[in-house]
Amino acid sequence: MAVDVEIDVELLKSEIKRTYASVSEEPERDFIFPTGRVWAEDLDYPPELANVPEEAVESFAGVANPWQLGRLKPGERVLDLGSGAGTDSLVAVQMVGERGHVTGIDMTSEMLSKARAAAEAMGAANVEFVEGEAERLPFPDERFDVAISNGVIDLIPDKDAVFSELFRVLVPGGRIQIADVTIQNPVSAEGRRNIDLWTG
Questions:
Q1: Which are the contacts of 58, defined by CB distance < 8 A and separation ≥ 6?
Q2: Residue 166: predicted pLDDT
Q3: May I ask the CATH architecture of the domain 9-184?
Q4: Whole-angstrom Cα distance, residue 54 to residue 192?
Q5: What is the pTM of this model?
């Protein structure tokens, strides 16, 4: 859906980065959305969650469980869109095994640092974390078999650009497993301009 209301996109991105930097740096803080291992367990995450280091899971801020849409296959190449501190990427890397590969992308440097440290602590060599934005993915066409995302696309005003990029980087017949927030009623123009409603 194209954005038809003027939104200061740079301000929005700055506020999103600030919010999720706080989730990374102060995971024990109370946010207006649930976070952490207990939340992921409440969402009935797969058993691989138990092997993900606490430094990643303590900053988990997903909204639902993308793994309810299916498990990954050994050898698959996976994109984790909005990977945050790396929880979903590190679940994915266990599913795809040594022949597979997982690439997490996020725009928050604090989250990426945490994800990289957790991957190293876990000894996961077939995962990488890249800084970038969902509307302009820094990857070649048809690079991934599967794209996963949890609670990220709802934060981005230009959803058409996000889905165009996902389709571009997926192989023909690739699949998307998204857990996200949806609404049932239209949001007013004033509501769509309210940065606080976008960020949390």
A1: 27, 28, 35, 36, 37, 85
A2: 98
A3: 3-Layer(aba) Sandwich (3.40)
A4: 35
A5: 0.86
